[in-house]
Write a structure and sequence with these properties.
The chain is α+β, with helices and mostly antiparallel strands. The protein has 2 helices and 2 strands. The chain is elongated and about 55 Å long.
């Protein structure tokens, strides 16, 4: 897959949008939400809480 330069109109729109959010210190609520997924550790017993590893899925827009 070759790299394609972004559509400049879309690029400019999102640049202005994200820069204005950053300057005002705003972060939409949806970007702060996470989904918790529990992954089972193979050698452990499934009935015990320590048998699971928590994994939080975050919106990539919120990670800075």
């Amino acid at each position: 897959m070759a790299f394609r330069p972004p559509n400049l109109a879309i690029y400019n729109y999102f640049s202005v949008f994200f820069i204005s959010l950053y300057k005002r210190g705003l972060c939409p609520k949806r970007w702060k939400a996470a989904i918790l997924v529990l992954l089972e550790k193979p050698p452990k017993r499934a009935q015990e809480p320590v048998s699971y590893r928590p994994l939080c899925l975050l919106d990539t827009m919120a990670s800075q």
